[in-house]
Write a structure and sequence with these properties.
CATH superfamily: NAD(P)-binding Rossmann-like Domain
Helix content: 40-55%
Radius of gyration: 18 Å
CATH topology: Rossmann fold
Strand order of the largest sheet: 3-2-1-4-5-6-7
Order of helices and strands: EHEHEHEHEHHEHHEHH
Number of helices: 10
Structural class: alpha/beta
Largest sheet: 7 strands, parallel
Number of strands: 7
CATH architecture: 3-Layer(aba) Sandwich
Length: about 300
């Protein structure tokens, strides 16, 4: 990976999952990384989980970067504004903005629940967390980012534009949340182009986040045991994989060629040559179409 030393990044929603993996890989490339989230060593968010933003910052520091943890609720305008003012005061620039805020895992009523059956309160809360937070963060952060040419905005979502257009991502609220983020990236690409900055949407594959590992009752060390419950989990990837995708984009002097596009960790691995921690290159979304959705027996041969 190209060195990102001297670059300043904000990973909005970096407590766990993809955000943590992205922060770590930006740190490994030498960047200064601001990590935001609601759960700290002294306060737990509605998730009720133990991961903290300080832990993520420590991981960034251990990999050679500079990790700075800041507690922020990205639905509260004043907190986001204060965050950006702090970044400008401390560094005078923002080179990379990763909008990874989500917070909806425990709000989704899966299993094809119809919109009239889904909890309206949870569904609307999900949309606020997934969409409003991204818009609020961009509103305050982009004036700083566009002060220098070459700025990069990455909107994190689930699913590529092609896949989501062809597949209803049940439930209604989840489908809207993830597809809207792709549209946000397209809009930002249009607005940032004249400032010589770039915006893309990016999706991991089936990611072995802390929550997903807990769901299957496994650890990263024995994740393959989860395939006994869900055989297609064989295509899964670590959060560091999509982190390496972000680092590759951030280090590419020709990153503007991707402006407005919908990208995936698997696709970018093939182009930039990075691998997951085990040396493989999972291509989850191609696998999803050609194997999982096609009703074939789970087999990742040729897909990682």
């Amino acid at each position: 990976m190209k060195s990102l030393k001297g670059k300043v990044a904000l990973v909005a929603g970096g407590t766990r999952g993809a955000g943590r993996g992205i922060a770590m890989e930006l740190g490994a490339a030498g960047a200064t990384v601001y990590i935001t989230g609601r759960t700290t060593r002294h306060e737990i968010s509605e998730y009720g989980r133990h991961e903290t933003i300080e832990e993520t910052a420590d991981l960034v520091n251990n990999l050679g970067g500079i990790g700075i943890a800041v507690q922020v609720d990205h639905l509260i305008h004043e907190q986001v504004q204060s965050l950006i003012e702090r970044i400008e005061k401390e560094h005078g620039r923002l080179d990379i903005l990763v909008n990874d805020i989500w917070g909806g895992e425990y709000l989704v009523d899966w299993w094809n629940t119809r919109v009239w059956e889904h909890s309206l309160e949870n569904g609307l809360r999900m949309l606020r967390l997934a969409i409003d937070t991204h818009l609020i963060t961009s509103h305050y952060a982009l004036p700083l980012l566009i002060k220098n040419e070459g700025g990069l905005v990455i909107e994190m979502t689930d699913g590529t534009k092609e896949y989501n257009n062809e597949n209803y991502r049940s439930s209604m609220f989840y489908d809207l949340a993830k597809s809207s983020v792709i549209r946000i990236a397209e809009g930002l690409a249009h607005e940032l182009e004249q400032h010589h900055c770039t915006a893309v949407s990016l999706t991991p594959g089936w990611m072995r986040s802390e929550i997903m590992l807990d769901h299957y009752g496994v650890k990263e060390e024995n994740w393959h045991d989860a395939t006994e419950k869900e055989p297609h989990f064989v295509i899964s990837e670590t959060p560091r994989y999509v982190g390496r995708a972000v680092a590759a984009l951030a280090g590419d002097p020709e990153v503007s060629c991707w402006n407005g596009q919908s990208l995936s960790s698997g696709k970018l691995a093939q182009i930039y040559g990075f691998t997951d921690l085990d040396g493989s290159q999972p291509d989850c979304w191609r696998y999803a179409v050609e194997v999982q959705d096609a009703g074939k027996q789970a087999d990742a041969t040729g897909y990682r």
